[in-house]
Amino acid sequence: MITRARKTLTTIAASLLAAAFLSTPLRAEQPETDTLTMSTGVDLPFIVHIVAREKGWFAEAGFKNVEFKSFASGNLAGEALLADEIQLWTPGNLPPVAMAHNGVPVVILGTNAVSHGLEKIVVRKDAGVEKPEDLYKVKLGLLVSSTSGALLGNVAKKYHLELNKIQTVNLGPPEAMAALANNEIQGIVFWEPWPYKALAEQDTKVVHTGTKSFFSGTENTDAQVSNNRTVWVASQDWVRRNPIATRALVGVLVKAQAYVRDPANRAEVLKIYSDAQKQPIAMNEVLLDNYTFDPTVDATYVNDMDAIADFLTETNRIQDRKDVLSYTYTEPLKTVDPALVEVEGQWKP
After folding, report:
1. Fewer CB within 10 Å of terminal CB in the chain, N or C?
2. In what side-by-side order are the strands of the sheet with 212-213?
3. Strand pairing partners for 234?
4. pLDDT confidence tier of residue 63, bands split at 50, 70 and 90
C-alpha cells in the first residue's frame, strides 16, 4: 500500500511538473546563435527532439534554423560534435564517458532517457543457446564501443563467463541484421528497435535484456546488467561560447520530455514521431515503455555513469579515472527547475 501510494504521489507530482513546464515561456533572453544542428537516429530516444521541433519549441526559444543529422556510428557523431558540425549529441552513455575520461572536451548536460531494459541479446532459435555458457558457441554482432558492449561484459561477469572467449563481430545494426539472417552470426546485442525487428522478421528469441534473464529455467527473472541511459552531450567550447543558447536548449528538451512523458499526449507524440521517422505506430507503441524520459541528475545517474566507467577501466579503455560529476554541467538544468538537480555537477564553463 505504501509503495502504491508513493507511485500515485510521484505520478501526480510528475503531472504537475509537466504542466508547469508546458505553460512556461521558453525564451527569456536571445541566444547567441539562432542555428542548431543535432544528431538523431531511428530509435525512440529522439522522440524528444522530434516533438520539440514539430511543436515549434526550438523556434520559440530563438533557434530559427534547426537541422537533424544522422550518422553511421556514434564515433562519427562524436567527431562531428568536436568539429562543431553538430551542437547536441544524444548517445548512450558509454561513448561520452570514454571520451571524457580520455581527455576529450565534452560535457554532459543531463539525461535524455533512462533505458536499462532497452538492450537485448537476441539469438537464432537454431543456435542452441539455452544457458549462459552456450554464448561461447555462437558469434554475436554488436557495436563493441557502444553500451551494448558494456551489457555483454556485465552478462559475462554475472554468469562467470570469460568475456574474451565470447566471439563478437563489430557490426552496425543493419549489417548485423543481414548477417543474422544469413547465419554468419547467430545473435545480436543491440538496443531497440533492432531486437523488435529481429523477433518479428527472423526465427529468433531473447535470452537476456538489460534487466531480465530469459535463459532456460530463469525466464523473466530480474537480472540487471545494463546501466544504459541516453545523455545530452555538447562540446565544452560550444557551451562556453553560448551560455544563453545552452540554457535555452536544455529548456526546450526538458519541456519536450515533460510533454512526451504525459500519458494524455501519448497518441499524439507517437504519431508525430512515427510519421517523421516513417515507422509503424504499432511498433513504437510497444517500444515506448522501454524509456523513462527523466533529466534528473541524482544518485542513480552517478551510479549508472560510474558503472560504465568501471567497465571501461576493467577493459583497459580508460587510463585516467575521473569523477563522473567532473564532466557533468547542471547549471542550465538547475535554471529550468532546481528540483531536477539532486546532485550538483562539478564542471563549470
Report:
1. N
2. 167-170, 139-142, 187-190, 120-124, 204-209, 212-213, 221-222
3. 107
4. very high
Structure-block grid coordinates of residue 314: 576493467
Question: CB within 8 A of 167, min separation 6: which ones?
Answer: 136, 138, 139, 140
Contact between 308 and 81 under an 8 Å Cβ cutoff? The reply is no
Total residue length of the chain: 349
pLDDT at 11 over 50: no
> How far is it, in rounded angstroms, from Cα 120 to Cα 148?
8
Model confidence band, residue 26 (pLDDT cutoffs 50, 70, 90): low
Q: How far apart are CA 85 and CA 103, in angstroms?
A: 20
Q: Give the Cα separation of 26 and 153 in Å (integer).
A: 42
pLDDT tens-digit readout, 64-106: 999 999 987 778 899 999 999 999 999 999 999 999 999 999 9
Q: Name residue 279's amino acid.
A: Q
- pTM here is 0.86
